[in-house]
Design brief:
Elements lengths: L1 H16 L5 H20 L2 H7 L7 H22 L8 H18 L5 H5 L1 H20 L9 H7 L4 H21 L5
Main location: membrane
Membrane topology: Multi-pass membrane protein
Protein name: Phospho-N-acetylmuramoyl-pentapeptide-transferase
Length: 183
């Protein structure tokens, strides 16, 4: 049940975040990079025991898969950055979210997804908060949900929102990697 909830949540969080040119795919690049590093570290007995993370035999293949997803995302971002020439759509965003969820389950780092995918968590929480608050009080917390649309309505330019979300995503990915030793 937890794995199913994680997969559904991750796929929908990435899908909801895919509202601005390059926003979701840029954040996926940071998340998948962090998980590629963790997959690599989990595949080596000595490194895994030093970091006190589970040794996962065969996670080298997950590293290759993660890096191939990373390469595809970087290539896609070239054409999806503002102004976008191509769009990801539901097929792309749901599959990327599913890939992130599956990787986190396979390397037993599901809880770390809350940190490394913190922007996705904030985006999905903004929708949940908006809906629940509106149903109970008939008032809105945000001008519009998800969160990136709230900032658009506040007058922020699209590229500013994307850059700031990417900065937060990069910082969260680094924080997640730095916590490996202290878990």
């Amino acid at each position: 049940p937890f794995g199913i909830l994680l997969l559904v949540g991750t796929t929908n969080a990435v899908n909801i975040t895919d509202g601005l040119d390059g926003l979701a795919v840029g954040l996926v690049i940071f998340v998948i990079s962090a998980y590629a590093g963790i997959c690599y570290l989990s595949g080596h007995v000595n490194i895994a025991s030093y970091l006190r993370i589970p040794y996962i035999p065969g996670s080298g293949e997950l590293t290759v898969f993660s890096m191939s997803v990373l390469g595809a995302c970087v290539g896609f971002l070239w054409f999806n950055s503002h102004p976008a020439e191509i769009f990801m759509g539901d097929t792309g965003s749901l599959s990327l979210g599913g890939a992130i969820g599956i990787i986190s389950l396979l390397i037993k780092k599901e809880i770390l997804l809350i940190i490394v995918g913190g922007v996705f968590v904030a985006e999905i929480l903004s929708v949940i908060i908006q809906v629940l608050f509106f149903k109970t009080t008939r008032k809105r917390v945000f001008l519009m949900a998800p969160l990136h649309h709230h900032f658009e309505l506040k007058g922020w330019h699209e590229s500013k929102i994307i850059a700031r979300f990417w900065i937060v995503g990069a910082i969260l990915a680094l924080v997640a990697l730095s916590t490996l030793k202290i878990q």
